[in-house]
Amino acid sequence: MTPRIEVVGIDSLILRLFDSIDEAHMPWMLAAAKRLRQAFGAALTDLVPSYTTLLVQYDLLQLDDRRARTLIDEALEGLTPEAGDAGRCHDVPVWYDRRVSPELETLAERSGLSVAGVIETHCRQSYQVFALGFAPGFAFMGLVEPILATPRLSTPRKRVPAGSLGIADRQTAIYPQASPGGWNLIGRSPLRLFDPADGSLLQPGDRVRFMPVDRAEFIRLGGDDTPFEVTR
Amino acid sequence: MSLLIEHGGTLATLQDGGRHGVRHLGVTQGGAADWISHGLANALLGNPRQAAAIEITFGGLTLVAESDVCLALCGADLDATIDGEPLRPWRSFRLHKGQRLRFAQPRQGVRAYLAAPGGFEAPTMLGSCSSVLREGLGGLRGDGRPLAEGDRLNWPGVSPSPRELPAAQIPDFGSPAPLSVVLGAQIGDFTGQSLFDAFNSDWEVDARADRMGVRLLGPELRCTRRSMISEGVPLGALQVPADGQPIVLLNDRQTIGGYPRLGALTPLSVARLAQCLPGTRLRLTPVGLDIAQRQHRRWLGAT
């Protein structure tokens, strides 16, 4: 790890910790985020972690560029990774079904697996939450088995229903709200992932395992089974 | 004490200083796009500068007063009238019970700000009432929706006497001021020719412009970097997608993004850009970080 600090805006610095996406980096990222919050205190306007970087936005009335860099340097001194059990584990129910998943069969064709095989492969492992972004509570998770890796749709959809589970390259995520989006949709979850009062259910560093449920269980858990074609 | 919306127009939303400290949740910043005009409208009424006001985009909004009130109007000249009589911006003014305030279309600028005594009342969500439709956050009912026919707006304050903003404080939306860019991010990955073109060419504001971002049309900028890992993006970020036409990211931008950037506009320049109509021609100019920070502090301190 060779941290670099770069200017990205009048009041924003980016701290680059790594150059590649790797689960092994997460404990370092979490530790750095915690240290930065402590170091900046009330002078921190926003802290935006992503896969390998932390965007630090500071209050210009309290700090200048030089002082902000010094605080980052001090925060990183003697940094040690967060303990392995820092993140929570979530079992996330998903209804994998053609009616709500327009790309389930596309992925089966691409991969040479059966639809059941696609589902089984997607559920077999647990996933790391790498970052939140794009929309409130939208958690970028990975890494998906290479056989399921599928590029984004060439033209994003105008509307993807809330709860939709998608794959983009080797990442997987659930759309917390209805929004535009270009990921390949393979299922739908009944869970409410974001609430303004409670924040985001999934946090960077958490691990997620997808649990296939049938339609009855999906509805019992509060899912909306409106077919995809109707939701457009 | 209320105002009744008769027509919502193109886009009228409640905006305050925006949401801060929540971008790590994926929640956008929001807030007034032209934060300078927004702050001046509030200042005319003695409000905190970041109090909730209506951001009126392009026009079409009509409101009726259900009680006498002193309101303030700053920002774009959207050909406003009170019962047919012209109303110029950069002043506070009385609106009597039954009078109708109408915004037609832009004469100069894009966004007008209408403030009320003490700020308009709306539920605070994650520290702000700023309305963001795609996130379902903020606004009059807390669902992110813009103002619409039948909505009633209230305010808690007492109406002061009307006054005009001193001419020296009024921003000039007529002259095409160059927009200042703090250089940084992936600027080293752009070709030399592109760096020259970025700061020595005219850029035209595209019609594809909203609260998320404003696309600029001009010479094609080339970045040698093939792909990058998504990272946090600041206000004003000057990102360049594969087609080489830059997009300046505004208040409702996504929290992280994966396009290479030349840097970011200063907040003062973001406010100016938010008032540029499609077709406006402008220039980008680099500014030193120290100078930009001093300018910004001076602006905050002087007003």
From TrEMBL, chain A:
According to the UniProt entry, its GO molecular function terms are: ATP binding; hydrolase activity
- The protein's name is Sensor histidine kinase inhibitor, KipI family
Q: Which InterPro entries match?
A: CT_C_D, Cyclophilin-like_dom_sf, PxpB
Q: Which UniProt keywords apply?
A: ATP-binding, Hydrolase, Nucleotide-binding
Would I find ATP-binding among this entry's keywords?
yes
Q: Where is the Carboxyltransferase domain?
A: 3-202
Q: Which organism is it from?
A: Pseudomonas indica
> Does the keyword field hold Chloroplast?
no
UniProtKB/TrEMBL annotation, chain B:
Molecular functions per Gene Ontology: ATP binding; hydrolase activity
The record's InterPro entries line, in alphabetical order, gives: CT_A_B, Cyclophilin-like_dom_sf, PxpC
Domain named Carboxyltransferase: residues:
24-299
Work out whether the entry's keyword set contains Nucleotide-binding. Answer: yes
What superkingdom heads the lineage? Bacteria
Keywords (A to Z) from UniProt = ATP-binding, Hydrolase, Nucleotide-binding
One Pfam short name: CT_A_B
Protein name (Swiss-Prot/TrEMBL): Biotin-dependent carboxylase uncharacterized domain-containing protein
Organism equals: Pseudomonas indica
